[in-house]
Amino acid sequence: MSFAEQAQQQFKGLFPDVLGIRMLEATPEKVVAELTVRDELCTIPGVMHGGAVMAFADTLGAVGTVMHLPQGAGTTTIESKTNFMGSAAPGMRLIGETTPLHLGRTTMVWQTRIQREDGKLVAQVIQTQLVLAPKG
Questions:
Q1: For the chain, what is the domain count?
Q2: What's the CA gap between 19 and 6, in Å, rounded?
Q3: Is 66 in contact with 75 (CB distance < 8 Å)?
Q4: In this structure, what is the dihedral angle of CA atoms 71, 15, 19, 32, given to the nearest 10 degrees?
Q5: CATH number, position 89
Q6: What pLDDT tens digit does each residue of the chain (136 aa) get?
Q7: Which of 87, 93, 120, 128 fits 79 for a cystine, CB–CB 3.0-4.6 Å?
């Protein structure tokens, strides 16, 4: 089973599953997923809520970090910066792609591009993940 499939199974019943994130690819160099915008993810006047966009990106950065963690370690987001460039309406399919900018022992930094399937950029996110030492 691929890492993308493993992550998808771990999402079941959790927030990424509620968002509707579907993992497409997960390698140490890149994580790719898709999400179809639904009314429940939107705000008035029918555009995807910025928080949902940020949560999509945050999930991808976390998945990328997990692939680089030492045995037994965990991770949490400690910083996230989002620039919004466009909007997405219900029914649109978004593609998120994240790549590492820094893979350190205590922090990892990921850059995520969220775009519509027509190629229009919706957001660019840079987030920092803290590496949590194994317990025990």
A1: 1
A2: 17
A3: yes
A4: -10
A5: 3.10.129.10
A6: 999 999 999 999 999 999 999 999 999 999 999 999 999 999 988 999 999 999 999 999 999 999 999 999 999 999 999 999 999 999 999 999 999 999 999 999 999 999 999 999 999 999 999 999 998 7
A7: 128
- Closest to 123 measured CA to CA, from 72, 45, 52, 74: 52
The whole domain housing 69 covers: 3-132
Q: State residue 51 phi and psi, 5-degree precision.
A: -65, -35
Tokens standing for residue 110: 């990921």
What pTM was estimated for this model as a whole?
Answer: 0.96
